[in-house]
């Protein structure tokens, strides 16, 4: 787990870096700015997704509170998962049990949301491929990687990649989906990278100081043992 020493430069770098990364992610989402790179209108004349602009304000407020709750629950889950992996360091077993419990909880929730059983039939088309790939890469593989990272580096190291994923998604949207690159996305991505590397710098220095202190401890203990033997 993380150690907070507010007077330490390492802790200050991690806190400031996390705040900077979150600020950059908010800038990417909330501010567009002028367009810097326009795609060809002939190839992407019609957008793939239509945003429902007629949604009422109450739905936006509810969705915002749900997103905040998701972020808080994800943070709590990362901390709990780090404790579980520390006690029982078997990533595959933990991930398998987690996905099994998630499937058991999701079945009644999905049936309540969609009561038409014909909608759950999978046909041999792109829908089946998307479901399989989403289940493998979106749930199983990503959860395994997160658990493995929690075991090695801790929850802060995993959580700091969340703002960076927003910048990566913006870049991938421009490259593969033909989205328009705006100034807000560029500035936000730069701010996210600055905060990201600040947190990584703090983590690297923290691990370096921990390693140096651990390497000095056996020598001190051996000197104490020698002193007691001579006396």
Automatic annotation (TrEMBL):
GO MF annotation terms: transmembrane transporter activity
Keyword flag Signal: no
Predominant location category: membrane
TM region positions: 12-31, 60-80, 92-114, 126-145, 157-177, 183-202
SUPFAM superfamilies documented for this protein: Multidrug resistance efflux transporter EmrE
InterPro entries linked to this entry: EamA_dom, EmrE-like, WAT1-related
Localization (cell): Membrane
One Gene Ontology CC term in the entry: plasma membrane
Entry keywords, A to Z: Membrane, Transmembrane, Transmembrane helix
Membrane-related topology note: Multi-pass membrane protein
EamA domain location: 63-200
Family to which this protein belongs: Belongs to the drug/metabolite transporter (DMT) superfamily. Plant drug/metabolite exporter (P-DME) (TC 2.A.7.4) family.
Name of the molecule in the record: WAT1-related protein
Lineage: Eukaryota, Viridiplantae, Streptophyta, Embryophyta, Tracheophyta
């Amino acid at each position: 787990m993380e150690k907070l020493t507010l007077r330490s430069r390492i802790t200050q770098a991690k806190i400031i870096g996390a705040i900077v990364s979150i600020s950059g992610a908010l800038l990417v989402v909330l501010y567009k700015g002028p367009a810097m790179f326009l795609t060809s209108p002939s190839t992407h004349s019609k957008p793939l997704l239509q945003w429902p602009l007629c949604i009422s304000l109450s739905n936006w407020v509810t969705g915002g509170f749900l997103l905040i709750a998701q972020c808080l629950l994800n943070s709590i889950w990362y901390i709990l998962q780090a404790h579980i992996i520390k006690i029982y360091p078997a990533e595959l077993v933990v991930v398998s049990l987690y996905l099994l419990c998630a499937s058991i909880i999701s079945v009644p929730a999905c049936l309540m949301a969609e009561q038409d059983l014909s909608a759950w039939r999978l046909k041999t088309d792109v829908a089946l491929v998307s479901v399989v790939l989403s289940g493998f890469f979106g749930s199983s593989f990503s959860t395994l990687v997160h658990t493995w990272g929690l075991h090695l580096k801790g929850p802060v190291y995993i959580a700091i990649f969340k703002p960076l994923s927003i910048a990566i998604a913006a870049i991938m949207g421009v490259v593969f989906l033909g989205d328009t690159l705006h100034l807000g996305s560029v500035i936000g991505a730069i701010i996210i990278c600055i905060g990201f590397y600040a947190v990584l710098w703090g983590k690297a220095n923290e691990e370096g100081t921990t390693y140096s202190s651990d390497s000095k401890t056996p020598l001190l203990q051996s000197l104490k043992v020698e002193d007691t033997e001579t006396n």
